TrEMBL record:
Native organism taxonomy: Bacteria, Pseudomonadati, Pseudomonadota, Alphaproteobacteria, Rhodobacterales
SUPFAM superfamilies: TPR-like (SSF48452)
Originating organism: Pseudotabrizicola alkalilacus
Alphabetic keyword roster: Signal, TPR repeat
The TPR repeat ranges on this chain: 37-70
UniProt name for this protein: Tetratricopeptide repeat protein
Domain of life the protein comes from: Bacteria
Entry annotated with the keyword Signal: yes
Signal peptide: 1-26
Length: 281
């Protein structure tokens, strides 16, 4: 009898020990899962910022297929496809995101962004119209400005550009876009002011420097602006200004600027040299 009691106690102890072991294993699995999620989040952030765009696409495609219910992975795939210059595919992914129960207004704005990059302007405008006016973000108003620009609704475009610039601490990009919009409308002085303003926020943007030279050239201001530039950049800007002068009929000024461009470039400036030779011939 005593032996039966001991056996029973041992068996019950084994059951308890087994239950404890299973509980401990479950806790370990949960902890490992949490760690994996944290690691995935860190890796996702890296892929979206400094990772190679194509590698990021592969990573998010693979991981999203393994976790089809994870909307964050679909968002990562949509963003990485945009970075990789594949906006049509990105738009397709963002459409699956906005069909998800956890969709946000930012997701719809991201879809509009992909559609604009894919040159689907009416579809982009339709998506932006579905975003409530209370959703006031830099990205939303930047896209609204671009849509208004595409429709030549200058008053609305200016309003949206101004709002977007006020909603970010890094407005150089939107100021550059706004300036280029002004330049295409024929408002060269207004464009020049915006390009100068953009460069105060980011003096490294060569595109803005080039646009500034175009705006000054359109006003027949054939001196380079006082901005920070490398020797190569200076040569490129002189070349841009030369072409602007030539197109406006100021050929002799254009020739002189081409000579300066060739002399300024630290290496052989083939494009400028060829243009100069063609003019002199």
């Amino acid at each position: 009898m005593r032996r039966q009691i001991v056996v029973a106690l041992c068996l019950s102890g084994a059951v308890v020990l087994s239950a404890c072991q299973r509980s401990a294993d479950a806790e370990v699995q949960r902890a490992l899962k949490d760690v994996n999620v944290i690691d995935e989040s860190n890796l996702s952030d890296i892929m979206l910022t400094v990772g190679d765009p194509d590698e990021a696409v592969n990573y998010f495609q693979r991981t999203a297929e393994q976790n089809p219910d994870r909307i964050d992975l679909k968002r990562g795939l949509g963003k990485s496809l945009v970075r990789a210059g594949r906006p049509t595919e990105a738009a397709s992914v963002w459409r699956t995101v906005i069909a998800h129960p956890q969709v946000t207004n930012d997701d719809r704005v991201s879809l509009a962004d992909a559609l604009i990059r894919a040159n689907e302007w009416p579809a982009a405008e339709a998506e932006l119209n579905k975003v409530p006016p209370t959703h006031e973000t830099y990205e939303r108003y930047r896209l609204e400005a671009m849509v208004a620009d595409s429709k030549k609704n200058w008053k609305k475009a200016d309003s949206f550009y101004e709002i977007a610039a006020g909603l970010t601490t890094k407005p150089s990009g939107v100021l550059n876009n706004w300036g280029f919009s002004k330049l295409t409308r024929g408002d060269a002085p207004g464009a020049e002011r915006l390009f100068v303003q953009a460069l105060t926020f980011d003096p490294t943007m060569f595109t803005t420097k080039n646009n500034l030279v175009l705006a000054r050239g359109a006003q027949r201001k054939y001196e380079l602006p006082v901005v920070k530039m490398s020797q190569s950049e200076k040569a490129e800007l002189l070349y841009t200004m030369a072409l602007t002068a030539i197109k406006q009929g100021d050929v002799s000024t254009g020739k002189q600027l081409l000579r300066e461009a060739v002399e300024t470039h630290p290496q052989h400036f083939e494009t400028a040299a060829r243009a100069l030779a063609a003019l002199e011939a």
